[in-house]
Amino acid sequence: MKRSLIAKICTVVVVLGIAACMFVIGRGHTVYFDAKSIEYNGETLKPGYRTAIFVNDERVARLEDGDRGMATWIGQNFKFRVEVTPEKGAEAVSHELTLKLPYNMDGIVLNMPALLAGAPEEVYLSEFVSLATEVSSGADEEIITDDFGIGGDI
Fold first, then answer.
1. What is the tens place of the pLDDT at every residue in 55-91?
2. Which CATH number fits domain 28-127: 2.20.130, 2.30.29, 2.30.30, 2.60.40?
3. What span, in angstroms and rounded, lies between the C-alpha atoms of 141 and 72?
4. I need a surface site. Which of 30, 48, 100, 153 has the fewest CB within 10 A?
5. Would the CA dihedral through 97, 102, 105, 110 be positive or negative?
6. 100-133, pLDDT tens digit by residue?
7. In this structure, what are the phi and psi dihedrals at residue 139, rounded to the nearest 5 degrees?
8. Is residue 44 pLDDT above 60, yes or no?
9. In whole angstroms, what separates CA 140 from the centre of its chain?
10. pTM of the predicted model, to two decimals?
11. How far is CA 139 from the centre of its chain?
């Protein structure tokens, strides 16, 4: 009886320990990369002619002005490389970056011009919010009912 209780308690402690470790190291994130102009400190930060994003040495996005790319990452320390071509025909400039991703966000949007310009986190990082599509309310439709309030042809 005493051994059985100790074994159960040890099992619960081990499972809770694994759960805590997985929470810290196994949290998955969807990271979106925006190549959009942004206003910061009175100046407009514009993206380069072309921006390539590499995660684990694999190109996950090739962005031009106004584009958005995406990658998935497991863990909190996001390591990636950005190659920016400032103008057509120019040589690409490479940046190795490591960011600590917030626990509380599932979809993270990184504004690349602000990030590369050294802007603070609240400028270049935001949470992805899906826009809901508007559903027709049917207010323009005329509903014909009979004397009893039941719809139908009259």
1. 999 999 999 999 999 999 988 889 999 999 999 889 9
2. 2.60.40
3. 45
4. 153
5. negative
6. 988 888 789 999 999 999 999 999 999 988 776 6
7. -65, -25
8. yes
9. 38
10. 0.70
11. 36
> What pLDDT is stored for residue 136 in this prediction?
56
Tell me the three-class secondary structure of the chain, residue by residue.
CHHHHHHHHHHHHHHHHHHHHHHHHCCEEEEEEECCCEEECCEEECCCCEEEEEECCEEEEEECCCCEEEEEEECCEEEEEEEEECCCCCCCEEEEEEEECCCCCCEEEEEHHHHHCCCCHHHHEEECCCCCCCCCCCCCCCCCECCCCCECCC
Residue whose entry in the numeric block shows the structure tokens 């320990």: 17
Q: For residue 23, give both structure tokens.
A: 């929470």
Q: How far apart are the first and last CA of the chain?
A: 79
In terms of Cβ atoms closer than 10 Å to its own Cβ (0-12, 13-18, 19+), residue 144 is exposed
